[in-house]
Amino acid sequence: MASAIVRSSLRAALRGVARPNPASKRSFSSGASADEEAREAAKWEKITYVGIAACSILAFVNLSKGHPHFDEPPPYPYLHIRNKEFPWGPDGLFEVKTHH
Fold first, then answer.
1. CA-wise closest residue to 32 among 45, 43, 23
2. Cα–Cα distance for residue pair 26/95, rounded to 1 Å
3. I want to staple 12 with a disulfide (CB 3.0 to 4.6 A). Which of 17, 22, 28, 96 is the partner?
4. What does the H/E/C string look like for 19-81?
């Protein structure tokens, strides 16, 4: 398969077909001049800086607000608080015992 590709490209090169026409290249630009592109880039740079400043101010305002602190939550029955000691003692099972 690879040899067939090499052979066909060699034949095309010998015939002179392998040279692409530079005028047939596809242009991906919008056709705008360099001056227009520079103005557009400067515009989006300014928009970016304004957005960064606005987001920073909004974050500062939101984070500087106080938030409410509530008292102890009521003892809801579904929490099933365990008041009995563990079978292995008051410490956790894998905690280092510091009682002497």
1. 43
2. 70
3. 17
4. CCCHHHCCCCCCCCCHHHHHHHHHHHHHHHHHHHHHHHHHHHHHHHCCCCCCCCCCCCHHHCC
Nearest to 3 by CA among 29, 73, 21, 11: 11
Structure tokens at 4: 């067939």
Is residue 99 within 8 A of residue 92, CB to CB? The reply is no
Determine the Cα–Cα distance for residues 60 and 65; give it in Å rounded to an integer: 9
Q: Render pLDDT for 21-40 as a digit per residue (tens, 0 to 9).
A: 555 566 666 677 889 999 99
> CA 99 to CA 91: how far, in whole Å?
10
Q: Whole-model pTM?
A: 0.41
Mean pLDDT in consecutive groups of 10 residues from the start of the chain, 100 residues: 71 64 61 88 97 98 88 77 77 70
